[in-house]
Amino acid sequence: MDQNPASAAPFDADMQPRLLLVDDEPRLLASLYELLKDRGFQLVTASCGADAVAHLSRMHFDLVLLDLRLPDIGGHEIMDFINAKGIDADVIVMSGEVGIDAAIGALKRGAYDYLRKPYSREELLKTVANALAQRRLKVENARIAQQLENSEKLYRYLVDSSPDIIYTLNHEGRFTFVNDRATQLLGYTREELIGRHYSMVVHDEDQERARYVFNERRTDDRASRNVELRLKCNTGNGHERTFNNTVMTIALNSIGMHVPEQDVKKLEFFGTYGVARDITDRKRAEELISYQAYHDILTDLPNRILFKDRLGLALIQAKRKGSELAVMFIDLDRFKLVNDTLGHVKGDELLQQAALRLKECLRRGDTLARQGGDEFTIVLPELRDRRDACMVADKFLECLHQPFDLDGHQVHISASIGIAIYPGDGETIDELLRHADIAMYQVKAVGKNGHSFYHASMQDVSTQKIELERSLRQALDHDELEMYYQPQVDVVTGRIIGVEGLMRWNHPQRGVLTPSSFLPFAEENGLMLPISDWMIGALCRDMIQWDAATSQPVKLSLNLSPQYLDRGDFFEKMRSALARHGIAPGRIEVEITENICIRNPQHAIDQLHKLCQLGVSVAIDDFGTGYSSLSYLHRFPIHAIKIDQSFVKEIHDEMSHYPVILAIISIARGLGMNLIAEGVETEPQARYLQANGCTTMQGYLYYRPIPLAEFIAALRAQVGGAVVAIQA
C-alpha cells in the first residue's frame, strides 16, 4: 500500500489518541492493554510483526508501543518500515534485550524512548503521557509557524512560550534576541545576553564546534543541523546542560544592481537564527543505558562484556611489552547456603559487601568484574612474577575471612580462586578464562578456601569429568544402570531380614562403577532427578520379580537424594509408581540422611509426613555423621536408625568400650526405633554389637552386594519375610 496513512488522519488534540500495542507474549500484551484501557486512548493490538505492519498500513496511529524481539519481523525492521513510508507515529520501544546495540539501534531509528523490561507501571504511563504531550507540542509548534507570518505580537508570545531556546545572532556572533526559555534554562537575564558574544555561554571544550554553529553562513542543505553543545548555566551550582542546536542562516537580498541584459541579486550575510533544545535528560538516559550495558547493576562492577574488552586491551599491551598478566576466577564458597537460608535479598547484600571488599584489594589498573551469580573475574596486568598474583589472592582470602553482617546475621564465607598466567597458560581471552575456571574448580575439589595456579594436568582431569558427565547422560538411554543388593541379617536367627540396594553403572569402557564414582557428578550436573526416577522404577520392577520368584512379601526402603526430596512433585511420583506397579505403600521404607534436615527442614518434614500418611515408613541413614540435632528425631517421622560403618570399623576388640556406638543404641532403644549396623566385616564387631543390643547387621562378613538373580536365590534359600533397604 503506497498511501501514507499518517496524512489521512493527523493528530487532533480533541480526538482520542490511537495507540498500537505490539508484543508476541500474550500475557504481556494483555497486561499492557489492561493498563492503558479506560485512559482516553483508542487501543489496537498486534501479536507479531506482520500484524503490526498491516495495521500501520491501514490506519493512522499517534503512538506505537513496540517490542523488539518478535517471531517474524523484528522491531527494528518495523521502525524502518515506519520511516520508509513516512508514517507519522512516535515509537516507544519496550524490550528485555540487555545489549546496548538494541537500544542504540532503536534510538537511531527515531524511537521516542526505550523502556527496559520489566518496567514499572508508573514509568510506562509517564512515558506514554510525555510522548503524546510532545506530539501535541510538535503540532502546536507547526501551527505557531503559520501564525508567526501574521502577527508580530503573537510571534513574541509564542516564541517566549517555546520549550526550546530561540535566539538570533548578528554577523559578529552577538546575541540580538533570546526568548524567555534562555533565562529559565541558563539563568541569565535577557539584558545580560543581548549584545554579548555567544562564547560567554559555551563550554570551553566546545568552543571550536560552536564557532561553526553560531557563525553558519551557508544557506543550502549543508547548513549546520543538530549539533550538540554544552552551555554554561548561571545558576550558582556549577551544573552544565547539553543542548541540541538547529541553526539556519538569515540572508537578505540587497538592492539590485542593473547590468545590461541581466539582473543580479547579491546575498549579504546578516546573522544566524537558531533553536537550542535542552537534551540533558536524554543524554543522561543514554549515558545510563550505556553504563548499564557494561556494568553489573547489583554490584556496580564491570560485567563480563566490559571485562572481556579490558582483558583484550591488557593482552594487546602485554604482547607489545613482552610482559605477563594474570586472570583470576573467584567463586564464593558457601554463598548458596547463605542465599538459601537467609533469602535472596540478604544474598544480594552479601554479594555487594564482598564486591566492595575485593575491590579494596586491587592495585591501580586491575579490573574486577562480576561474571554472574557468586562468580567474579579479575585481570592483573603488568605482572612482575607469580608472587604478585599470590599476594593479591591472599589479600582476597584474608578480606573475606572477616565475618559479614547482614542485618544482625553474622555470616562467614571463603573463596576458591583459580589463576591463569599469560602467555604460559593461554594467549586468548577464552583460553585464560577457561583455564582460570578449571584451576578454581581444582581448589574446590581439595577443600575450597584457597587459590591455585592452572597446570596442564588439570585440563586432563577436567576433560575426564566432562567425558564422565557426557557418558552418564547416555547411561540412562543405553540402560547401563543396574541395582545390586546387599542382604541384612538377623544374627540371632541367621535369617535375611532386609537388603540394601546399591546402584551400579555398567560402564562400557571402565567396567562396573560404584555410586561414589559417579553420583557426585549427577548431583552437580542436575542428573540426580532423572537417575532417581529411574531408580524408583527399577526397584519396583525388581520387587515384582522377587515376589513372583519367592512368593515372599518383601518390604522395600529407598534412600533418597536431598535434591530429589526437595523436588515439589516427589510425593506424587512415588505414589504414582507404587500404584502403577501394584505395590502396597506399607511395603516401602525410605532412608534419608541427616543432612536433609538442614537444607529445608520444614519442607522435608511435610514431604515425609505425606509419605507416612500414605503408609510408607522412614529410616535415618548414616546416623551421627551429619549436622542435625537430636531434636530432629522428634520432629521427623523416623522409624529406624542405621549405625554408620565409620563407627563400626573402629570396633577392634569386643571387650573394649565404644561410647558412640552405645549412645546410638541407647537412643534407638529409648525412642523405640529399629536399629541396623552397616559395614560389619569381622566377628569381634558382630559380637560387640549383638552383646550391646544391636542384632540386625549388614556387611562383608555376611554378604557382598549381589545382582538381582543372586539375591532372589538367597531369598529362596530361606523361609520367611524380608526387609529391603535401598541406597542409590
UniProtKB/TrEMBL annotation:
Q: Which UniProt keyword terms apply here? A: Phosphoprotein
Q: Which InterPro entries match?
A: Biofilm_reg_signaling, CheY-like_superfamily, EAL_dom, EAL_sf, GGDEF_dom, Nucleotide_cyclase, PAS, PAS-like_dom_sf
Residues of the GGDEF domain: 323-456
Spell out which residues are annotated as carrying 4-aspartylphosphate.
67
Can you give the residue ranges of the EAL domain?
A: 465-719
Q: Which domain of life is it from?
A: Bacteria
Q: Which residues form the PAS domain?
A: 151-221
Query: Could you tell me which Pfam families the record lists for this protein?
Result: EAL, GGDEF, PAS, Response_reg
Domain Response regulatory, first and last residues per copy: 18-132
The record's listing under Gene3D superfamilies reads: 3.30.70.270, 3.40.50.2300, EAL domain, PAS domain
Does Phosphoprotein show up as a keyword for this record? yes
Entry-linked SMART domains: EAL, GGDEF, PAS, REC
Q: What is this protein called?
A: EAL domain-containing protein
Per the UniProt entry, what species is this protein from, by scientific name? Massilia terrae
